[in-house]
Amino acid sequence: MIHAYAVQKKGDELKPFEYDPGALGGEEVEIKVEYCGICNSDLSMINNDWGISQYPLVPGHEVVGTIAQVGNAVKKLKVGQRVGLGWNSRSCMTCEWCMSGNHNLCLTVEGTIVGRYGGFADAVRAHEGWVVPLPEAIDPAVAGPLFCGGITVFNPIVQFDVKPTDRVGVIGIGGLGHMALRFLHAWGCDVTAFSTSPDKEAEAKEMGANHFINSREASALRSITNSFDLILSTVNADLDWSAYIVCLRPKGRLHFVGVAPSPISAQVFSLIPGQKSISGSPLGSPATVNQMLDFAARH
Question: DSSP letters along 213-227, please?
């Protein structure tokens, strides 16, 4: 039996729960959970904010632990190995996206806590392809959030070939935003933090921001027109996106990893002359997770 904490209905409290996971699949591993982060997505799932929750629901998708069991077809992982598991736990491994290394874009990718039981437990199971070894240089006690928030903000750096000479803005200095500042600073970029909280300036600069903009001040935004190669939005809020598009340089990109609740509105003519883009991305593939961990271990 696996012992866990679950909610029985929308918005319920976490309470002890146990379940029989059945036989271990041939390509599955069972992770003995040592640590598990708490992500805002866990709260969204508990409250069924996205309409995809199934109850009883065991949250937890920022897992660090050791391999306790391996299926008879597992090739790359061994019992006792320390690993991490994030939002995704399985993909088909045969479609064009999986075969090209873009497992995170698989149309049947499976969430760790969507329709299955997650990591607020003493054990959790996943396909071996989505379980990534943790470098020894990374402290396992604090590594969990890298497997969700960390890879969410690291993935665009890789996907859009962000260069150390690029000027990058980060909107929102919260769970995602503070990790974006750290990664981009270590990457070598000139980094600007955008926040509606002026009291975050000192902390944002300590985390790696070279500059800080109080985004409540319209004059501050106007002063940085035509400044950024990339602006990364990490907030779950509706903002005046046109004001940020004006801040992009030619070929600049306004990129979303935070879920703005309302449709995004922009004048097409604000995009065409400068060949600017608006885009979004999910978490990264296992290969990109591995790349992120290697980079984090170095820095």
Answer: EETT-HHHHHTTTT-
